Amino acid sequence: MPIPFRFSPVAIAVAATFVSSAYAQTEAVKPVIADETGKTATSSTKAATLPSQKTEAPVKENVQKVTISGGRSDIDERRQSTAAKLIFGREELDRNGDTNIGDVLKRLPGVTIGGRPGRGGDIRMRGMGNGYTQILINGERAPRGFSMDSLTPDQVERIEIVRGAVAEFSTQAIAGTINIVLREEYKQKTTDLKFSLGSEQGRLAPNVSITMPGEIGNLSYAFSGSVFQNRQHDESTTFTSEKDANGQDALMQNQADQTNRQTTGINLAPRLNYRFENGDTLMLQPFLMHSRSDSDSRSEVDQLFRSDTYRGATPYALANANAHAETTFLRGFGNWQHRFENNAKLTVRFGGGLGKMDNASTRTQFDTSGKQIDLITDVNNTRDSSLNTSGKYMLPYGEGHTLAAGWDMEFGRREQTRVSLDNGLPQFAESGDNLDARTRRLAAFVQDEFDINPQFAAYAGVRWEGIHTSSTTAKGVVTNDSTVVSPIVQGVWRIPDSKDQIRLGFSSTYRAPALNDLIALPSISNLNTPTRPDRTGNPNLKPELSKGIDLAFEHYLSRAGIVSANLFVRNIDDLIRRTTEPVVTAQETRWVSSPKNIGHAVTKGIELEAKFQLQEFFPDAPSVDFRSNYSRFWSKVDDILGSNNRLDQQPAQTANFGVDYRLSRLPLTLGGNVNWTPAYYTQATNAQLNYTGIKRQLDLYALWKFNPNLQVRLSANNLTANDSISNSLVTTGGINHIDYNDAKTYKTLTLRVEMKI
């Protein structure tokens, strides 16, 4: 049944801010002299000009430069970018004392995190599920298997959210792009040392991070690293009910699951910058991430009723399991820049990576009498390797034009061996076979950013991208090829005599099938049902193609605040959706989920944001900062019936509301944030209806600054600790099968000490 739409208190607060901001005093546009780097839609180096200024090619010897020691703020960078881009720097990264980037992202406008609070999940923009949001690290695609939960805020310089598309980046970004920029060259000379100790249900999670900058002649460097450990306990219950074609009960059972897990890891991200005598610069940044996880779990199944006609697999009564996993990622980033006498610039980026993922588990299952019925062992060894290079030649020409052209190449390989045995026999036909998959991505782009007049700037670009995937298994060779051409046009109109501006963008983007959706060894469900099926790939998938429009109004306040509204529409063709069907094997009938292209879909929405200081409107008010955002989404999938035929996992609404209060007589700052996503239904297929319960998270913090070199932060996350509820109903082949799942969530307390040495 559809969920009624109600405005939340957060939505009302955002709307009220829009009304009140109309009465705020705004400042006239101030002159800012463009720097030597030129301008691009993604580099945030574009500067506003005086209405009386004419945009001319830079003249090196006669240009007067204005230098501001503190640099431009995140708001200034956002305003001066032609592309619709949000930037969040150290203030946002450090505010709540988070221990992973996922917790930072969940508070940003239009961003939601799948899964249970405190356990991470896929990162989504505009409510769109996994694969629609492009995740980049230093402008490059994140490696397969990489988890943002293992990346600490201390290793990150800033987060960039690109709502539309730019030709310089891959256009695999139907929902948008999130670019995680790792720590850059430090200007200060101090070493940052941070200790934190978290506690969840009394289970301690220590974390130590250090950042050491330095300079030797023309070489500057910054070493950043962290070590961490956490212990977690998960607990969930699932009630399953199934009725046969006559409406009679066929199955009723309860399942209780518990898992204890310990994870230890280390992250290293040194950075080297060298400036040559001719002005060329070379940046090298290796990135190492290693984690080790050990877990043990217990699953109990209490079968309340099972009819003689029930055709499902015979369940176990008790299962004990233990697992060990080790993951290592080693990536190298490089960037070389050369400037020419005509103010042109050539940037060449290069890199590569190695990934090693080893997982081993043992699961023992018993019947109601305590007799062992299954011993399941699973060993999965995966090796990933990649090489990539990209470049951009940027040339200022004419009056106010900056032309850029470039290339992008990435080559990847995955070698995987999985041996899965049930009582010594293979669980699936390919168990023990080697999977060798290779991907090749080639792209070329050209773009022009130009000032039409002092009030109007525009951006136009086109990108061609081709992806080739091939795999070799014991069954033979499978290939998949796709090519996409993506034109992009964006414009910004700066309203005269104010800081306000309007943005409009048109873009073509796409979503390429994931490697696991194309080519994957089967994933076997130990308790196979229509709602917990086996999973496999489909080598015949085509990419989803999208055409979209973005329209935004931005009102910039005088005290580094902003009030904005953004509208978007996306039309999607060849939508990919997983479907579940019964497959007859030699032993039994198994439920198997595989992806398919099912047709056309459309999604649209509105995103509201308000960020301001209370003194903006009331000069004598306390030093209080407000941060709020509210998003409302609609979507429809043409080839699926029902009133909830929306995009998979897309909620109807999401909102954040945060406050920071700096006391006047004490060096103390208090603050917090409320994150809210209401419950919603999704008609996944004509046969399956899914329900996702409400998500509410309350985070609070207190920051005491003893002196400029020492501060202590106390954070409390997920204070409400609401259970995570989800249901799934499948009606097919005359049966009616439903699962009700209730998973616990937990509050987390963290004490963090930050020192500058």
Oligomer: single chain
Tell me the radius of gyration: 27 Å
Strands, count: 36
Poorly predicted tracts of residues: 1-40, 42-70
In DSSP terms (H or I, runs of 4 or more residues), the helix count works out at: 5
Structure, described:
The structure is a single chain. It contains 5 helices and 36 strands. The strands form 3 sheets. The protein has a 29-stranded mixed β-sheet that branches. Strands 1-6-7-4-5 form a 5-stranded mixed β-sheet. The radius of gyration is 27 Å and the shape is globular. The chain starts with 8 loop residues before the first helix and ends with a strand. The relative contact order is 0.13. Residues 306-719 form the TonB-dependent receptor-like beta-barrel domain. This is TonB-dependent receptor. Residues 1-24 form the signal peptide. Residues 79-177 form the TonB-dependent receptor plug domain.
What's the short version?
The protein is 4% helix and 59% strand. By secondary structure, the protein is mainly beta.
SSE order and pairing:
Layout: H1 9-21, H2 74-80, E1 85-88, H3 90-94, H4 101-105, E2 111-113, E3 123-125, E4 133-137, E5 140-141, E6 156-162, E7 176-182, E8 192-200, E9 203-216, E10 219-243, E11 249-268, E12 271-275, E13 281-306, E14 318-339, E15 345-366, E16 372-397, E17 401-422, E18 425-426, E19 434-453, E20 456-473, E21 476-494, E22 501-511, H5 515-518, E23 534-535, E24 544-556, E25 562-584, E26 589-613, E27 623-637, E28 653-662, E29 668-677, E30 680-683, E31 688-692, E32 695-707, E33 710-717, E34 724-732, E35 735-743, E36 748-756
Parallel strand pairs: 4-7, 23-26
Antiparallel strand pairs: 1-6, 2-3, 4-5, 6-7, 8-9, 8-36, 9-10, 10-11, 10-12, 10-35, 11-13, 12-13, 13-14, 14-15, 15-16, 16-17, 17-18, 17-19, 19-20, 20-21, 21-22, 22-24, 24-25, 25-26, 26-27, 27-28, 28-29, 29-32, 30-31, 31-34, 32-33, 33-36, 34-35
